[in-house]
Amino acid sequence: MTYPSDAGPTPVLSLKDVSKSFGAVRALRDVSLELFRGEVHALAGENGAGKSTLIKTLAGVHRPDAGQVLLDGEPVLFHGPGDARDAGIAVIYQEPTLFPDLSIAENIFMGRQPRRALGRIDHKATHSATLALMQRLGVELDPDRPARGLSIADQQIVEIAKALSFEARVLIMDEPTAALTGSEVARLFGVVRTLREQGAAVLFISHRLEEIFQICQRVTTLRDGAWIASEPIDGMTEDDLVRRMVGRDLDELYPKQDVRPGEVALSVRRLTREGVFTDVSFEVRHGEIVGLAGLVGAGRTEVARAVFGIDRWDAGEVEVQGRKLTNGAPSTAMASGLALVPEDRRAQGLVMDMSIERNIGLTGLRTTVKAGLVDRGAERSRSLDWAVKLQVKYARIADTVNTLSGGNQQKVVLAKWLATGPRVLIVDEPTRGIDVGTKAEVHRLLSELAADGVAVLMISSDLPEILGMADRVLVMHEGRLTAEIPRSEATEESVMAAATGRAAA
Amino acid sequence: MPESLTRAVRWDTVVGALLIVLLLLSFSTVDGFGNALNLSFLIGNTLPIALIALPMTLLVVSGEIDLSVASTAGLSGSVMGALWNQGMTIETIIPICLLLGVVCGLVNGLLVTRLGLPSLAVTIGTLAAYRGIAQIILGSDAVTDFPTQYLDFAAGRIGDTFIPQAFLPFVVLLAIAVVALHATPFGRSLFAIGANEEAARFAGIRVKRHKLILFTVTGLMASLTGIFWALHYASARYDNATGLELSVVAAVLLGGIDFDGGKGTLGGAIAGVFLLGALQNVMSLQDVSAQSQIVVTGVLLVLSVLGPRVARQISVARAGRRAASTPTSSLSSPS
Ligand SMILES: Nc1ncnc2c1ncn2[C@@H]1O[C@H](COP(=O)(O)OP(=O)(O)OP(=O)(O)O)[C@@H](O)[C@H]1O
Ligand SMILES: [Mg+2]
Fold it and tell me: Nearest CA to CA, how far is B195 from chain A (Å)?
């Protein structure tokens, strides 16, 4: 076995009987966890199970109400993330925390840039160190470009690079792969394996169970803030793990119903935004789910943004249900029945310190109106309705969304858009950070919507999700549509080949 | 109620309570404060601040600011004086001045929304520009001979009470502003824009249009205030209302409107306005010099930005202590 036995060496970092509450919500109850050198340890659990809270407790962001954090067997009290970092613990939080106005390199080496004489910052050294990190991760990102405007995936990569730049003994990663596609994940795992061989301990969270099985040796499961099990991965199946997390068996994961496609609902013709994407044409019919695949940076999100009117296009046209859309006008797009679930829930999807109710209400300000005033009753029932339908886990509907776990925030974004009753729905990473059970629920919902005649365009970096859900798969590579693959021919190989530009589609 | 709102309400209450305490203290200890004439002066002198505070509150909630309001008021007073000297009737002059205010606001709004310039910089520029134009138009003249029924309205009181006649239209405008900010889709959108402009855009809210409307209305209200000012003090001069923007911003922030946008209530803002107005009145009664009063306003401005933050921190700390005293955690040793 590759992991040490409990009787063996002392864990580098551990939690003992830790509890943590937020008001009435008991996020952690008597949870214990041991992290050993040379292991990759998975932390599994549904949305709101307490995983991020556990990590923040390890990192000194939260102070436990009860219990202890132990470093090399000795109790420690971290007063903040800085203390944890000084102790050799690098943390990637679930939500990227980059400074938008600083460059990528500055973000990575924040506060500890290489210096030259007289304490001046050595920009050259910072630049080349960043380049080296990027090479290790196999991505091309300009170290000097500002973090503002980076896609969620790129932000994740910068966060990963930042964590790797420390000489960390312990690497903690809260859903680092949620927006990454297969090849970036493979690179990351390569780096993680090297670190593990060098003796680092890694704590890893992901709702993509196959990733846990690929990279981890042990797994600890949480349910509703309580510790359920810590056990070796060897010999477990995905179903075993799901049962630990959910407490019961789950139904089939990708229940796409067969629907005969109707009229063309969304038609994109020769759409071009200079330097971003070129000559993109496709159609989505009522009742169809069309997947849009591609590597990070291929231009999928950018096409969606332009179609919805967030960015202007330079050439081409977009029609929704036969009606031409105005360039750069989300409000007219919405009025024509279009909805876009954006990829970045914190920056684009939600107003973090507004309530759940009002966030969902934001898309209904035109419809839940009585005599020119916001109809609060209607707003509340609309919000409650969808929050319940999507199983958002919250204490009160009037709580601000920043008290929700990441996955539950994502559900609020979905609720906000599904509540508009769209006829054409574009979803960008709709299940990013959503647990397996709810994911199946979201898929069932999308499938039902399609059955009701909604046209769905689904962008996802989760290839199994695309393969499971889509009637057709469009593939983008470097700003162009390179392939259109019918469901019957869509496989991991065919899609990846087109996404990496190897296919003669 | 969302956490942010309860916090804001708490600060509202603080400001409201301060206002009441100040009034009670002044009634009992300051000579000449309680008589009807002084109270009507207090309200009359505060009305210009209050009038501009209405749109300013909406503007700050949406994350913008307009520092040119006092200059717009001065400009509209100047134009009013100049046209009156030319022999135009007051009934034609007033609409022209209001239109001018709309144009001033529109210019600010277009510079901010079309060119994407920060409103702080834009309106500091127009603060100087509008005042300069006002001086060019009227020079150092003071126009005082406006028709008496207008002067009487602007300076008069309702019957024997201490309430100025102009207070009633203000109450109507206040009601409109409260409804607009707190009960309409428009107002709801302003909070979203101020808190997270990008998310507002993704929700289909027409951010630029909302801001343009706000700047325009602010210009309109500033010129209305300029007209009121000239009539109330029976004097149209180019330097009318100089420095008023400082009082307005101080009052609005004092009332708990977050300078970063997205938070606050109109009730709080108006409580802040009258707190500041009462303070200025008391200082005048105590013969505090005008310069010292400006110093006090400046200090209040700083305190008003600090106040809500400190209140928030206290409430967070209190919540923390409450959490720490729950049964589960009472086992933990204090660290
Ligand atoms: N700052 C906070 N204030 C109030 N409640 C909070 C806060 N942070 C977390 N919670 C609550 O604690 C519980 C656990 O949240 P946590 O973020 O740890 O879940 P998670 O396991 O990371 O979920 P996900 O998979 O969705 O990221 C949730 O019910 C959440 O609503
Ligand atoms: Mg989490």
Answer: 6
